[in-house]
Specification:
alpha/beta, five-stranded parallel beta sheet, 5 helices, 50% helix, 20% strand
């Protein structure tokens, strides 16, 4: 089975680590990387392919919405899921219009985030066959 390459983008180390732990504990079919900024996420995408990105919206440097737009334009096969503590309907709609495939408000449970990513991963696998 092909491992799903998951990139977690959040300026809070505790969020990066807790998300990575969720996927490590629940499944062995994820190859997980973490970065702390939009700029580092783009650097990572230039170096290796990523199937799914979990990204925060509020980070220093590049805003999350700009990151979503850039990834959608430059790496259209990468699925983007937004995780945000500043979730509003307006922000969620804007993120989806820019290319995000789902939006998870913080705080979330391990099952919530895992199930959303699993659903997106199923779609990624279909596209990669």
């Amino acid at each position: 089975m092909k491992k799903i390459k998951l990139l977690i983008v959040d300026d809070e180390k505790v969020v990066q680590q807790s998300c990575a732990d969720i996927f490590t504990e629940k499944s062995n079919h994820y190859d997980i990387s973490t970065v702390s900024s939009g700029e580092k996420a783009l650097d990572t995408l230039e170096e290796k392919s990523v199937d799914i990105i979990l990204t925060d919206l509020k980070m220093p440097g590049m805003p999350g919405l700009q990151l979503i737009s850039t990834i959608h334009d430059k790496f259209p096969d990468t699925a983007i899921i937004v995780i945000s503590g500043y979730a509003t309907v307006k922000t969620a709609v804007e993120a989806m219009k820019l290319g995000a495939v789902d939006f998870i408000p913080k705080p979330f449970t391990p099952d919530e985030i895992f199930n959303v990513v699993e659903n997106v991963a199923a779609r990624v696998k279909v596209k990669t066959k």
